[in-house]
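Running this now, will post back.
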Amino acid sequence: MILDTNAISALADNHAGIGGVIEKLDAIAIPVIVLGEFRFGLRQSKLRLKYENWLDQLVSLCRVLIIDEDTASEYALVREELKSKGQPIPTNDAWIAALARQHSLGVLSRDAHFDVVARLKRLSW
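Update: finished.
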């Protein structure tokens, strides 16, 4: 299962319900896009050092998904499909969706717009 940025934020803040969902997952993957979004948020946090250390520990336990040529092709398909439906999603989330489809993984997120992406399963908490 891929963690979206809001899932990592909820996990970092011990949001009710997310721990139980995480415990049931076989494996966790984090897209490099999500790491960038989360690290950008940390740069503005007063608790930056605490959360950076926490994130480093989390990343050591997860698979980090990088963007490659296959991802780029899947991204183009996702964007084309969504454009033809008239249902675009944020660019970073289209990259996350592309990685999820490329690796046959679901996405743990509160963002319901992932539901419009064909062949993508979203799980929430």
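The chain has one domain: 2-123. More later if anyone needs it.
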